[in-house]
Amino acid sequence: MNIRTVDTKALKYAERVQIVFDEYESGSLYIGLYTMDGELYTDITTNLAGSTREFAFVETGSEAERFISEQGFAEKIDLVKRSGFNGYRLYHFAV
Questions:
Q1: Which of 29, 30, 65, 70 could disulfide-pair with 10, CB 3.0 to 4.6 Å?
Q2: Who contacts 62 (Cβ-Cβ below 8 Å, separation ≥6)?
Q3: pTM score, two decimals?
């Protein structure tokens, strides 16, 4: 597990968060945002088929996607998967 603390303007209810880099049981990349009190703010990645340790899906149009864009630590890939009523875009994370 790797943790970084960053300042942000992309989130509605937090200005400073901890980014937690870990992995799902499947071995694919997990990224979550936590408040400075250690409470989960939101999950950045979603564990969908096709995710790896470097490539993961993020809900399109979400606060998490705005955060990624602001922080610039992932490259958007032109692939969107549907799950339920939501779309999830694939990103390449350089972590």
A1: 70
A2: none
A3: 0.89
